[in-house]
Amino acid sequence: MASKTGKKASGLAVSLVALSVVFGCSTAGESGAVLRVGSRNLRCPAADLETALNRESAKVREYYVGCEFMYTRVLCDKGTGQQASACHPAKPQPPCFGGGCFTEDPVTFEWTLDESLASAEPAPTAESLFATP
Fold first, then answer.
1. What are the respective helix, strand and coil percentages of the chain, to the nearest 5?
2. CA distance from start to end of the chain
3. Less packed terminus of the chain by CB within 10 Å, N or C?
4. What is the pLDDT of residues 108-126, one digit of tens each?
């Protein structure tokens, strides 16, 4: 009975290693670009930088690059055909204002302002709350 369990575990380990090799080869060129872009924002030696893929959409991959309790986000466009992927620092989340907050595009991971918020009426003032009808 123990030999069947051992075979299943070793088969699973081989599958995981094969999957990581395939995925690692597909993003090997991208990892150097991610480190270069991330190192511009962080003041750490290159040997101390760590990267992690945070999330992925149909168009971009978002990586975290960090060291010494600091991190920065890096976005890499997925390359198509002969074109290599291009990486750039992700923009920080803009602050909210009287008309509303920015929303993140789930495909590009960029912050966009909803047009309905931009054309909305200004927020009511406190005087309108206490006015008699």
1. 40, 25, 40
2. 82
3. C
4. 999 987 766 555 555 566 6
Residue 46 DSSP code: G
Evaluate the CA torsion angle 91, 92, 93, 99 in order and state its sign: negative
Q: pTM of the prediction? A: 0.62
CB under 8 Å to 30, separation ≥6 — which residues? 61, 76, 85, 87
Q: Supply φ then ψ for residue 125, to 5 degrees.
A: -90, 170
Contact indicator for 74, 37 with CB cutoff of 8 Å: yes
Token digits for 117? 């918020």
- Give the model confidence (pLDDT) of 27-52 as tens digits: 566 888 899 999 988 988 889 999 99
Tokens 């309108």: give the residue.
Answer: 128
